[in-house]
Amino acid sequence: MRNNVGLLLSKRAHLSPTLEGVVEVERGRRFTFAALNARANRSAHALAALGVGKGDRVALLLMNGVEYVESFFAIAKLGAIVVPLNWRLVADELAFILQDSGAAVLVFDPELREVVAELHRRGAATAVRAWVQTGDPADALPFATGYDAIQERASDTEPAIGASDDDALYIMYTSGTTGLPKGVVHTHRSVLFSNFTIAMTADVRYRDRYVIVLPLFHVGALTPLTGNVHRGMTTILMRAFDPRRMFETIERERATTLLAVPAMLNFMLQVPDSERYDCASLRWIMSGAAPVPVTLIEAYAKRGIEVHQVYGLTESCGPACLISPEDALAKAGSTGKAFFHTDVRVVDEGGHDVAPGGVGEVLVRGAHVMQGYWNRPDATAETIRDGWLHTGDLATIDAEGFVYIADRKKDMIISGGENIYPAEIENVILSCPRVRDVAVIGQVSPKWGESPLAIVVKGDAALAEADVLAHCQGKLARFKQPKAVRFVDEIPRNPAGKILKRILRERFPEPAAE
Length: 514
What we know:
This protein is of the alpha/beta class. It is built from 15 helices and 27 strands. It has a nine-stranded mixed sheet, with helices on both faces. Strand 26 (449-458), helix 14 and strand 27 form a beta-alpha-beta unit. Helix 7 (188-199) packs across helix 8.
């Protein structure tokens, strides 16, 4: 068997034809692995008829659904390259990615027809030559080909396999929280090794039922999808996150595991009468994308649900570190140790391993690390040095090798010569039951250089600035305590759940009050 990710679905359909491969929560559709593979084969032949071949880029502007799944595996079989698109982006941002990647085909959902129409009007702003729309053909844009129509006319036989191993599989653009996004290139080999290292480290089992709620244009959803097919697990796809629907889905589908970012888990805790839902099937929840507050882990432990903190990046195809079930509470706050087929170091600015308790940058090495950034050899050389991926994340490591993520380098606050990590302050403020969400940024301070500002979403309308500041006293050193609090209705986050601190800095540019 060739090392082609598309063939994972072919092999799984052969081994487990009647096992449910995908369940769509909102639309109620269910597909066995045999049916899913047949649909993927038809999609592959349909795309080939549009001229798609090895190395061609096919962009997917799709919400979570079977069309995304089958298109991904179809493109992989052909040896073409998937370009997952964030459907929350505006036309300018999407046009840049389409042009940068050179995508020749765009497959899109009818809900996104307005932005697609704008992209089409721009003409030369993109390289797209074929536009394919899913859903009711009666609602298709005049320049678009109907997805269902071309798929139904195609054969469901296995197509010729066009790529393997170190050939590119997808280009996933970073969220672009600073500057223009860069395209992270993963290969068939890097995705396979991502599956291997997860399967050898995490408690994933044949016939597990895994809820995917993050959008499939994010590595935190796409990597579990390929791993679920590889391992023989059912993917339960949610089109969008809703905290009550999550509980309903866990109960109805007898879900065994899922991945959710900390903000999602926090919102779930706030669902009234959530204890009435039967979550006995759920063995554990994997949570990452941001440091997981210890209070969140403990709150779920009281409900008998293990939360395992994971640390990873788009550039590592997801995995870097994971906390084991045995250590999830004893080492609460740690993201654990490196995955099985992964090496992790924490180094100082000279590249030397830090002593236990010291803060340094996290480096990651493994066969699942990206091939590089698309058409950006300069950025690739800067990020991957001597085989190590330089993450830009800061962490400590203890004597037993447990890693504790501190923060992003660029988010660190330097106040009076002291390094302050916003995540530490955020964890303390989130432990206040009257706080719903929080972000901490640095403000320019004539006296200290920078001072922490807490930006808070109220869980109690009566919460005042003095209450938040008082909550921090005795829990943080004085130099770490926020000097002021601002209240907002919502903390801006990207689809991975990471706080968009650039936006907050633009919104609160004033100097610190001394």
